[in-house]
Amino acid sequence: MRNRWTKEEAWAWYNDQPWVNGCNFIPANTSLKLYYDPATHEESKKLIEKEVKLAADVGINSFRMHRLLPRDVWKNDHDRGMEYLEEFIGLLDKYGISLMPVLGNDCVFSKPDENGNSVSCFVGAPVVGWRPDDDMNNWAETEAYYMDIVNAYKNDRRIYAWNIWNEAGNANRNLEMISLPLINRVFYLLREADVTQPLTADCWGLYKQVEGRYNFETGLDPIELAVCNLSDIITWHYYGDLLHTKKYMKYLMEKFGRPMLNTEWGHRPWGSFIPSTLPLFKKYNCGSYFFGFVTGPYFDMTKVWGFIRDDDRIDQNVWMHGIFYADFTPYDQDDIDALLEMKEVLEKERQGKTVKK
After folding, report:
1. Contact 208/214 with Cβ under 8 angstroms?
2. Overall fold of domain 7-356
3. pTM
4. Which pLDDT does position 27 carry in this prediction?
Protein backbone atom coordinates (compact mmCIF):
# COMPACT_ATOMS: atom_id res chain seq x y z
CA MET A 1 0.00 0.00 0.00
CA ARG A 2 1.30 3.43 -0.94
CA ASN A 3 1.54 6.29 1.52
CA ARG A 4 0.91 9.92 0.77
CA TRP A 5 3.64 11.10 -1.56
CA THR A 6 6.46 13.08 -0.01
CA LYS A 7 7.02 16.58 -1.33
CA GLU A 8 10.10 15.31 -3.14
CA GLU A 9 8.13 12.52 -4.81
CA ALA A 10 5.37 14.92 -5.79
CA TRP A 11 7.79 17.39 -7.35
CA ALA A 12 9.72 14.66 -9.17
CA TRP A 13 6.46 13.48 -10.74
CA TYR A 14 5.23 17.00 -11.53
CA ASN A 15 8.46 18.13 -13.16
CA ASP A 16 8.36 15.10 -15.43
CA GLN A 17 4.91 16.07 -16.81
CA PRO A 18 4.00 18.67 -19.42
CA TRP A 19 2.65 21.84 -17.83
CA VAL A 20 -1.12 21.49 -17.69
CA ASN A 21 -3.00 23.92 -19.90
CA GLY A 22 -6.41 22.40 -19.31
CA CYS A 23 -10.10 23.07 -18.92
CA ASN A 24 -13.16 21.61 -17.24
CA PHE A 25 -14.91 19.80 -20.06
CA ILE A 26 -18.61 19.08 -20.42
CA PRO A 27 -19.89 18.41 -23.96
CA ALA A 28 -22.16 21.24 -25.10
CA ASN A 29 -23.57 20.00 -28.40
CA THR A 30 -24.51 16.61 -26.99
CA SER A 31 -24.43 14.98 -23.55
CA LEU A 32 -22.73 12.07 -21.83
CA LYS A 33 -26.19 10.57 -21.38
CA LEU A 34 -26.56 10.41 -25.14
CA TYR A 35 -22.98 9.18 -25.53
CA TYR A 36 -23.70 6.20 -23.27
CA ASP A 37 -27.02 5.37 -24.97
CA PRO A 38 -26.43 2.75 -27.69
CA ALA A 39 -29.17 4.33 -29.82
CA THR A 40 -27.43 7.73 -29.95
CA HIS A 41 -23.84 6.74 -29.22
CA GLU A 42 -22.31 7.04 -32.68
CA GLU A 43 -23.75 10.47 -33.46
CA SER A 44 -22.91 11.73 -29.98
CA LYS A 45 -19.34 10.46 -30.30
CA LYS A 46 -18.90 12.44 -33.53
CA LEU A 47 -20.13 15.62 -31.86
CA ILE A 48 -17.85 15.11 -28.87
CA GLU A 49 -14.86 14.50 -31.11
CA LYS A 50 -15.41 17.84 -32.82
CA GLU A 51 -15.21 19.61 -29.44
CA VAL A 52 -12.18 17.57 -28.39
CA LYS A 53 -10.39 18.42 -31.63
CA LEU A 54 -11.20 22.09 -31.13
CA ALA A 55 -9.67 21.93 -27.65
CA ALA A 56 -6.49 20.38 -29.01
CA ASP A 57 -6.35 22.97 -31.79
CA VAL A 58 -6.18 25.82 -29.25
CA GLY A 59 -3.61 24.04 -27.07
CA ILE A 60 -5.67 22.33 -24.37
CA ASN A 61 -3.73 19.27 -23.15
CA SER A 62 -5.86 18.00 -20.25
CA PHE A 63 -9.51 17.76 -19.23
CA ARG A 64 -10.94 17.67 -15.73
CA MET A 65 -14.29 15.87 -15.78
CA HIS A 66 -17.10 14.74 -13.49
CA ARG A 67 -19.35 11.70 -14.01
CA LEU A 68 -17.21 10.06 -16.67
CA LEU A 69 -19.34 6.94 -16.47
CA PRO A 70 -22.90 7.65 -15.28
CA ARG A 71 -23.71 5.54 -12.27
CA ASP A 72 -26.95 4.19 -13.69
CA VAL A 73 -25.08 3.02 -16.79
CA TRP A 74 -22.45 1.35 -14.60
CA LYS A 75 -25.19 -0.50 -12.71
CA ASN A 76 -27.48 -1.43 -15.58
CA ASP A 77 -25.23 -1.79 -18.64
CA HIS A 78 -21.81 -2.29 -17.08
CA ASP A 79 -19.79 -3.90 -19.87
CA ARG A 80 -21.02 -1.54 -22.56
CA GLY A 81 -20.46 1.41 -20.24
CA MET A 82 -16.85 0.42 -19.57
CA GLU A 83 -16.33 -0.13 -23.30
CA TYR A 84 -17.63 3.36 -24.10
CA LEU A 85 -15.54 4.86 -21.31
CA GLU A 86 -12.40 3.31 -22.77
CA GLU A 87 -13.38 4.62 -26.18
CA PHE A 88 -13.76 8.12 -24.76
CA ILE A 89 -10.38 8.07 -22.99
CA GLY A 90 -8.82 6.77 -26.20
CA LEU A 91 -10.41 9.65 -28.11
CA LEU A 92 -8.82 12.18 -25.78
CA ASP A 93 -5.45 10.48 -26.10
CA LYS A 94 -5.74 10.62 -29.89
CA TYR A 95 -5.66 14.40 -29.57
CA GLY A 96 -2.96 14.52 -26.89
CA ILE A 97 -5.35 15.30 -24.02
CA SER A 98 -4.94 13.68 -20.61
CA LEU A 99 -7.71 13.28 -18.07
CA MET A 100 -8.27 14.19 -14.43
CA PRO A 101 -11.38 12.26 -13.35
CA VAL A 102 -13.43 13.67 -10.45
CA LEU A 103 -14.91 10.98 -8.20
CA GLY A 104 -16.92 12.52 -5.34
CA ASN A 105 -18.62 15.91 -5.14
CA ASP A 106 -20.04 18.22 -2.49
CA CYS A 107 -21.31 20.73 -5.05
CA VAL A 108 -24.89 19.55 -4.43
CA PHE A 109 -27.58 22.16 -4.66
CA SER A 110 -30.71 20.62 -3.21
CA LYS A 111 -32.15 18.45 -0.48
CA PRO A 112 -35.47 16.61 -0.66
CA ASP A 113 -38.03 17.81 1.87
CA GLU A 114 -40.59 15.59 3.59
CA ASN A 115 -42.74 15.70 0.45
CA GLY A 116 -39.89 14.81 -1.89
CA ASN A 117 -39.60 18.33 -3.30
CA SER A 118 -36.19 19.83 -4.02
CA VAL A 119 -35.07 22.57 -1.61
CA SER A 120 -32.19 24.86 -2.56
CA CYS A 121 -29.08 24.64 -0.40
CA PHE A 122 -26.58 26.70 -2.37
CA VAL A 123 -24.58 29.57 -0.90
CA GLY A 124 -26.53 31.37 1.80
CA ALA A 125 -29.45 28.93 1.84
CA PRO A 126 -30.65 27.67 5.24
CA VAL A 127 -30.46 23.95 4.47
CA VAL A 128 -27.55 21.55 4.12
CA GLY A 129 -26.97 19.73 0.85
CA TRP A 130 -27.66 16.01 0.94
CA ARG A 131 -25.94 13.07 -0.77
CA PRO A 132 -27.02 9.42 -0.72
CA ASP A 133 -23.61 8.61 0.76
CA ASP A 134 -24.50 10.51 3.91
CA ASP A 135 -26.05 7.16 4.81
CA MET A 136 -23.13 4.77 5.43
CA ASN A 137 -25.33 1.88 4.28
CA ASN A 138 -24.81 3.22 0.75
CA TRP A 139 -21.04 3.30 0.91
CA ALA A 140 -20.47 -0.22 -0.40
CA GLU A 141 -22.01 0.49 -3.78
CA THR A 142 -20.29 3.87 -4.04
CA GLU A 143 -16.91 2.31 -3.26
CA ALA A 144 -17.50 -0.44 -5.82
CA TYR A 145 -18.43 2.14 -8.45
CA TYR A 146 -15.37 4.31 -7.84
CA MET A 147 -12.93 1.43 -7.58
CA ASP A 148 -14.14 -0.35 -10.70
CA ILE A 149 -13.07 2.71 -12.70
CA VAL A 150 -9.93 3.29 -10.65
CA ASN A 151 -8.69 -0.30 -10.96
CA ALA A 152 -9.19 -0.18 -14.73
CA TYR A 153 -6.97 2.91 -15.06
CA LYS A 154 -4.71 3.02 -12.00
CA ASN A 155 -1.59 2.40 -14.11
CA ASP A 156 -2.72 4.26 -17.21
CA ARG A 157 -0.54 7.13 -18.44
CA ARG A 158 -3.63 8.79 -19.95
CA ILE A 159 -4.93 9.57 -16.45
CA TYR A 160 -3.11 12.64 -15.15
CA ALA A 161 -4.34 12.48 -11.55
CA TRP A 162 -7.35 11.39 -9.49
CA ASN A 163 -9.46 14.25 -8.17
CA ILE A 164 -10.93 12.40 -5.18
CA TRP A 165 -13.48 15.06 -4.23
CA ASN A 166 -14.84 18.27 -5.69
CA GLU A 167 -15.30 21.19 -3.27
CA ALA A 168 -15.49 19.31 0.02
CA GLY A 169 -17.73 21.28 2.35
CA ASN A 170 -19.82 23.03 -0.32
CA ALA A 171 -23.60 23.29 0.07
CA ASN A 172 -23.26 24.23 3.76
CA ARG A 173 -21.60 20.90 4.54
CA ASN A 174 -18.32 22.32 5.84
CA LEU A 175 -18.96 22.95 9.55
CA GLU A 176 -19.76 19.37 10.49
CA MET A 177 -17.36 18.03 7.84
CA ILE A 178 -20.13 15.69 6.70
CA SER A 179 -18.21 14.20 3.77
CA LEU A 180 -14.84 13.78 5.45
CA PRO A 181 -15.31 10.15 6.65
CA LEU A 182 -16.06 8.97 3.11
CA ILE A 183 -13.31 11.17 1.64
CA ASN A 184 -10.83 9.57 4.02
CA ARG A 185 -12.11 6.16 3.00
CA VAL A 186 -11.74 6.85 -0.74
CA PHE A 187 -8.20 8.16 -0.32
CA TYR A 188 -7.40 4.98 1.63
CA LEU A 189 -8.90 2.72 -1.05
CA LEU A 190 -6.92 4.32 -3.86
CA ARG A 191 -3.68 4.14 -1.89
CA GLU A 192 -4.44 0.51 -1.06
CA ALA A 193 -4.93 -0.10 -4.79
CA ASP A 194 -1.42 1.31 -5.43
CA VAL A 195 -2.51 3.79 -8.09
CA THR A 196 0.45 5.30 -9.89
CA GLN A 197 -1.10 8.74 -10.36
CA PRO A 198 -1.25 11.41 -7.63
CA LEU A 199 -4.38 11.92 -5.51
CA THR A 200 -5.92 15.28 -4.67
CA ALA A 201 -9.05 17.00 -3.36
CA ASP A 202 -9.79 20.66 -3.89
CA CYS A 203 -9.83 23.58 -1.49
CA TRP A 204 -12.25 26.19 -2.75
CA GLY A 205 -14.05 28.52 -0.29
CA LEU A 206 -16.52 29.78 -2.86
CA TYR A 207 -18.67 31.61 -0.34
CA LYS A 208 -15.59 33.69 0.54
CA GLN A 209 -15.18 34.76 -3.08
CA VAL A 210 -18.34 36.79 -3.57
CA GLU A 211 -16.26 39.96 -3.27
CA GLY A 212 -13.44 38.43 -5.29
CA ARG A 213 -11.29 38.15 -2.15
CA TYR A 214 -10.17 35.48 0.27
CA ASN A 215 -10.12 35.66 4.05
CA PHE A 216 -6.46 34.89 4.67
CA GLU A 217 -6.73 35.82 8.34
CA THR A 218 -9.22 33.01 8.86
CA GLY A 219 -7.32 30.64 6.60
CA LEU A 220 -8.69 27.41 5.20
CA ASP A 221 -11.80 25.87 6.65
CA PRO A 222 -11.16 22.65 8.61
CA ILE A 223 -12.43 20.39 5.85
CA GLU A 224 -10.32 22.20 3.23
CA LEU A 225 -7.23 21.81 5.41
CA ALA A 226 -8.05 18.14 5.99
CA VAL A 227 -8.33 17.28 2.29
CA CYS A 228 -5.19 19.25 1.42
CA ASN A 229 -3.28 17.30 4.06
CA LEU A 230 -4.45 14.08 2.39
CA SER A 231 -3.44 15.21 -1.10
CA ASP A 232 -0.23 14.45 -2.99
CA ILE A 233 -0.61 17.63 -5.03
CA ILE A 234 -2.65 20.72 -4.12
CA THR A 235 -5.66 21.62 -6.23
CA TRP A 236 -7.71 24.75 -5.64
CA HIS A 237 -10.55 26.80 -7.07
CA TYR A 238 -10.64 30.56 -7.29
CA TYR A 239 -12.84 32.78 -9.45
CA GLY A 240 -11.63 36.17 -8.22
CA ASP A 241 -9.56 38.87 -9.90
CA LEU A 242 -5.87 38.69 -10.78
CA LEU A 243 -4.56 40.37 -7.64
CA HIS A 244 -6.42 38.09 -5.26
CA THR A 245 -5.75 35.03 -7.40
CA LYS A 246 -2.04 35.74 -6.98
CA LYS A 247 -2.41 36.26 -3.23
CA TYR A 248 -4.33 33.04 -2.73
CA MET A 249 -1.91 31.07 -4.92
CA LYS A 250 1.14 32.30 -2.98
CA TYR A 251 -0.64 31.59 0.31
CA LEU A 252 -1.17 27.95 -0.70
CA MET A 253 2.34 27.60 -2.13
CA GLU A 254 3.91 28.78 1.10
CA LYS A 255 1.58 26.71 3.27
CA PHE A 256 2.01 23.36 1.53
CA GLY A 257 5.13 23.52 -0.66
CA ARG A 258 3.70 21.02 -3.12
CA PRO A 259 2.91 21.13 -6.84
CA MET A 260 -0.29 23.04 -7.47
CA LEU A 261 -3.05 23.18 -10.06
CA ASN A 262 -5.98 25.56 -10.13
CA THR A 263 -8.75 23.22 -11.22
CA GLU A 264 -11.51 25.85 -11.53
CA TRP A 265 -11.15 29.49 -12.51
CA GLY A 266 -12.44 31.90 -15.13
CA HIS A 267 -15.32 34.21 -14.19
CA ARG A 268 -15.66 37.36 -16.28
CA PRO A 269 -18.05 39.27 -13.97
CA TRP A 270 -15.53 38.88 -11.12
CA GLY A 271 -12.55 39.83 -13.27
CA SER A 272 -11.05 36.37 -13.87
CA PHE A 273 -9.88 36.39 -17.51
CA ILE A 274 -7.82 33.98 -19.60
CA PRO A 275 -5.43 36.55 -21.18
CA SER A 276 -4.25 37.77 -17.76
CA THR A 277 -4.63 34.75 -15.48
CA LEU A 278 -3.20 32.02 -17.71
CA PRO A 279 0.26 33.64 -17.97
CA LEU A 280 0.24 34.19 -14.19
CA PHE A 281 -0.24 30.48 -13.57
CA LYS A 282 2.49 29.60 -16.06
CA LYS A 283 4.90 32.07 -14.46
CA TYR A 284 4.44 30.44 -11.05
CA ASN A 285 4.37 26.87 -12.43
CA CYS A 286 0.80 26.29 -11.26
CA GLY A 287 -1.17 24.07 -13.62
CA SER A 288 -4.47 25.35 -14.97
CA TYR A 289 -7.97 24.03 -15.68
CA PHE A 290 -10.23 27.01 -16.44
CA PHE A 291 -13.95 26.36 -16.24
CA GLY A 292 -15.97 25.67 -19.35
CA PHE A 293 -15.21 25.39 -23.02
CA VAL A 294 -18.05 25.36 -25.56
CA THR A 295 -21.47 26.62 -24.52
CA GLY A 296 -24.43 25.09 -26.28
CA PRO A 297 -27.82 23.43 -26.02
CA TYR A 298 -26.63 20.79 -23.53
CA PHE A 299 -24.41 23.02 -21.39
CA ASP A 300 -25.02 26.76 -21.01
CA MET A 301 -22.36 28.68 -19.07
CA THR A 302 -23.33 32.16 -20.11
CA LYS A 303 -25.43 33.27 -17.09
CA VAL A 304 -23.98 34.07 -13.67
CA TRP A 305 -24.92 32.02 -10.62
CA GLY A 306 -28.32 32.79 -9.18
CA PHE A 307 -27.00 34.15 -5.91
CA ILE A 308 -25.21 37.05 -7.66
CA ARG A 309 -27.80 37.89 -10.30
CA ASP A 310 -29.08 40.81 -8.25
CA ASP A 311 -25.61 42.20 -7.56
CA ASP A 312 -25.55 45.56 -9.36
CA ARG A 313 -21.78 45.85 -8.88
CA ILE A 314 -21.01 43.34 -11.62
CA ASP A 315 -21.71 43.26 -15.33
CA GLN A 316 -24.52 40.75 -15.86
CA ASN A 317 -24.24 41.03 -19.65
CA VAL A 318 -20.93 39.19 -20.11
CA TRP A 319 -20.60 35.42 -20.14
CA MET A 320 -19.55 33.93 -16.83
CA HIS A 321 -17.69 30.92 -18.29
CA GLY A 322 -17.00 29.46 -21.70
CA ILE A 323 -14.97 30.58 -24.68
CA PHE A 324 -16.82 29.25 -27.74
CA TYR A 325 -20.37 29.42 -29.05
CA ALA A 326 -21.98 26.13 -30.06
CA ASP A 327 -20.82 26.70 -33.67
CA PHE A 328 -17.22 27.15 -32.40
CA THR A 329 -17.16 30.89 -32.98
CA PRO A 330 -15.01 32.50 -30.27
CA TYR A 331 -16.83 34.58 -27.68
CA ASP A 332 -13.74 36.77 -27.28
CA GLN A 333 -10.85 36.34 -29.69
CA ASP A 334 -8.43 37.55 -27.01
CA ASP A 335 -9.09 34.30 -25.10
CA ILE A 336 -8.20 32.22 -28.12
CA ASP A 337 -5.10 34.27 -28.89
CA ALA A 338 -3.87 33.79 -25.30
CA LEU A 339 -4.39 30.03 -25.53
CA LEU A 340 -2.60 29.84 -28.88
CA GLU A 341 0.32 31.83 -27.49
CA MET A 342 0.54 29.39 -24.58
CA LYS A 343 0.35 26.47 -27.00
CA GLU A 344 3.40 27.86 -28.80
CA VAL A 345 5.29 28.32 -25.53
CA LEU A 346 4.57 24.75 -24.44
CA GLU A 347 5.55 23.34 -27.81
CA LYS A 348 8.92 25.09 -27.61
CA GLU A 349 9.39 23.68 -24.10
CA ARG A 350 8.53 20.19 -25.35
CA GLN A 351 11.02 20.46 -28.20
CA GLY A 352 13.67 21.68 -25.78
CA LYS A 353 13.15 18.70 -23.50
CA THR A 354 13.31 16.35 -26.49
CA VAL A 355 16.64 17.82 -27.60
CA LYS A 356 18.10 17.47 -24.10
CA LYS A 357 17.12 13.81 -23.94
Report:
1. yes
2. TIM Barrel (3.20.20)
3. 0.94
4. 97
